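Today's session is about reading a structure prediction critically. Students often jump straight to the picture, but the first step is always the sequence itself: look for stretches that repeat, for charged clusters, for runs of hydrophobic residues. Only then move on to the predicted structure, which in these notes is written as discrete structure tokens rather than atom positions. Here is the chain we will use throughout the hour.
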Amino acid sequence: MNKDLLLYEKSQPGRRTLRLGRLDVPAADLSALPAGALRRTPPDLPELGELELVRHYVRLSKKNVSIADSFYPLGSCTMKYNPVLNEAATAIPGFNAIHPLQDSGRVQGALAVMKRVADALAAVTGLPGVTLHPAAGAQGELTALLVAHRHFVETGQKQRKMVLIPDSAHGTNPASASIAGLQAVEVASGPDGLVDLDDLAAKLGEDTAVFMITNPSTLGLFETKIAKISEMVHAAGGLVYMDGANLNAILGVARPADFGVDMMHINLHKTFSTPHGGGGPGAGPICVTQELERYLPSPRVVEEEGGLRLDYDTPYSIGMLRGWAGNFGVLLRAYCYIRRLGAEGLLRVAQNAVLNANYLRVKLRGAFHVPYDRMCMHEFVCNTKNQREQGIHAVDVAKRLIDLGHHPMTIYFPLVVSEAMMIEPTETEAKETLDAFVADMLLIAEEAKHEPEKLHAAPVTTPVGRLDEGRAVKDPVLCYTCSH
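Below is the predicted structure for this chain, in token form.
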């Protein structure tokens, strides 16, 4: 290598300058680091050519599973296609090179995107108050519960601390209630999988703050008596919160506000097709009634004569739950999706999601037991009751699917169904993909009858076979170099 092109020069104690051609790049300032943290010898790194390096990372990429290379029927998580066009929009310099602390006058385009996303969510839900703050659905739940708590404190009803939650709810619901300083109370499901109204009535009272309901539920069922439920909760003085994780099933068909919902969160990374999985990124805006709007986190985008700005002057706000005003990259992707589809397209999202789920339900109900075998919404739940005599469990079916090239469905949830397998095809999968999945599920059902050992041994095509999941929970290995 030409030393004139790559040369370290000592410029000051603890600081070096890397001179590359005519470009001087300051290296990291090491003076603040303790001496014990600094290396005394160069790191023992392998010397590799570019070809070996490229092959290494390509091999790693092939071990990843994503919606881009396989069907991903992960129930209740809406793992659907993220349009490439949305990603292109986030690369526009005017969007990706800005900072949240820039003057409002220089980021009017970004503020306009945020304002239009909020307006669209208000139109979809019928709830006018919107905050884009929450970083995920679970944080949206927490935000809404804090808003509700603040409302009751401000209105002299501090005793309202009970949050009623159906037994089929997402696990984050009771966790959010606890973090908000409220008490979770379970409400039973009836034999039809819907909320038991008698049990709900028995638990409503002067201490009721919120009834949290996922609608459609994690069983893939629409609560047909949701208006009656809202009426009961309101009569008791409580608020109705809707977990909007499954909103893609009712987009353009029903507005939550119309059946009595006071507040809800929306998973932009599910319903509006922004990247999801792997811990992020995410966004879980909440929408509330006009009465609750003043308690929303700040800042929020407001419109005035001079344009748009972020409003921090909100004395009743619960404050900030995260940095800045929202996960802008996710908001931008959602905006592209909403504008591209329009009102008619969003309605088709719901129609196709419901059609695809029911197609799979009907195709599989002969081979696998479907405990609630009626018209479902975006997903449905089946189990291995038909395979019980062969000793087959939900985990066996899931692991065998890996060998056949599919990502497994959600298993063992919701807890109200034993050996549950929750399947959500989403609206973005073609019939050919669904048929291939059905064929492999029917093959697994046949293997369970005649070759159950195949299922017990699966997966056999992966670098790592079936793990001891019980031991992994009780005796985890938490560092790469540890072994025991």
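Discussion point for the tutorial: The first helix runs from residue 50 to 62.
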